[in-house]
User: Which sequence fits this backbone?
């Protein structure tokens, strides 16, 4: 158990938790990469050679996110916290749907699309409550602003913080991630050895992880199902019989 009295639920989320809010994932057949090439919009090289296209891509994403609403999965996690559970969320998502649902302990591993940041000093952040970033928008040090998003090939500045959080988990819940993006996906293996891990993802079976409890269902169904169960019990509990999964050893 973590240092505080209350068992610590660590939740690791990916694009799939926001899919039912209408935000496209990356790797689905109709996902974002079906329309864009990664290297054209989400790499330091793209930013160097064609910043207008990069800014346009993130403007579109930002507008989509502003109109989206938290779904049953985001709400269920926030509700668990409201009811006194210790819930830390580590998200790969750049949207703000966990916060808008009411979760207060949220670490964005890959940045936040509703912030701009200096292209010379990553600590200089600027909220974008409306509008986007234009060429010529400068930070206080005079350099062009860029989206506060970690691009492919860049370091993940908050990774060690996320590892610290994972190391204090009493239960790990993984929701809606293909576990394809490193180093984020390695977090699943950084919880203490005795800690149970549950994955909720319609494609959970294809993860090929026989050491993890896999719930092949959408987040909007699976997350409320689990949190209701914990709220009824008053604690985090993983009954083998509850899950329509087969644990292969
Ligand atoms: P991914 O696209 O690689 O994987 C998405 C996963 O979600 C898949 O495993 C898919 O089966 C699952 N999924 C689809 N619908 C679901 C649902 N209704 N419920 C639960 N799961 C569902 O995304 P990823 O693993 O997060 O990694 C890719 C990167 O994409 C991340 O770095 C993230 O920053 C970025 N991203 C973020 C957003 C966002 O902020 N909402 C959207 C797209 C991509």
Assistant:
């Amino acid at each position: 158990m973590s240092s505080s009295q209350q068992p610590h639920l660590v939740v690791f989320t990916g694009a799939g938790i926001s899919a039912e809010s209408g935000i496209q994932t990356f790797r689905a057949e109709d996902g974002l990469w079906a329309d864009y090439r990664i290297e054209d919009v989400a790499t330091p090289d793209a930013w160097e050679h064609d910043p207008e296209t990069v800014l346009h891509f993130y403007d579109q994403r930002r507008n989509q996110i502003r109109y989206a609403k938290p779904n049953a999965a985001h709400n269920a996690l926030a509700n668990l916290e409201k009811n006194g559970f210790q819930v830390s969320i580590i998200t790969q998502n750049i949207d703000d749907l966990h916060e808008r649902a009411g979760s207060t302990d949220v670490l964005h591993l890959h940045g936040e699309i509703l912030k701009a940041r200096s292209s010379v000093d990553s600590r200089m952040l600027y909220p974008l409550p409306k509008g986007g970033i234009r060429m010529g928008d400068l930070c206080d040090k005079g350099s062009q602003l860029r989206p506060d998003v970690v691009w492919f090939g860049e370091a993940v500045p908050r990774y060690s913080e996320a590892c610290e959080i994972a190391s204090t988990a009493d239960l790990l819940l993984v929701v809606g991630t293909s576990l394809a993006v490193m180093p984020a996906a390695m977090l699943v293996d950084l919880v203490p050895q005795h800690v149970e891990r549950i994955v909720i993802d319609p494609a959970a079976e294809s993860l090929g992880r026989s050491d993890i409890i896999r719930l092949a269902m959408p987040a909007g169904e699976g997350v409320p199902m689990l949190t209701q169960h914990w709220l009824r019990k008053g604690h985090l509990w993983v009954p083998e019989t509850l899950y329509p999964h087969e644990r292969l050893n």
Notes: The helical segments are 32-35, 38-41, 44-49, 51-67, 72-82, 97-101, 159-166, 219-233. The beta strands are 8-13, 86-91, 106-108, 111-118, 125-127, 145-149, 171-175, 196-200, 213-215.
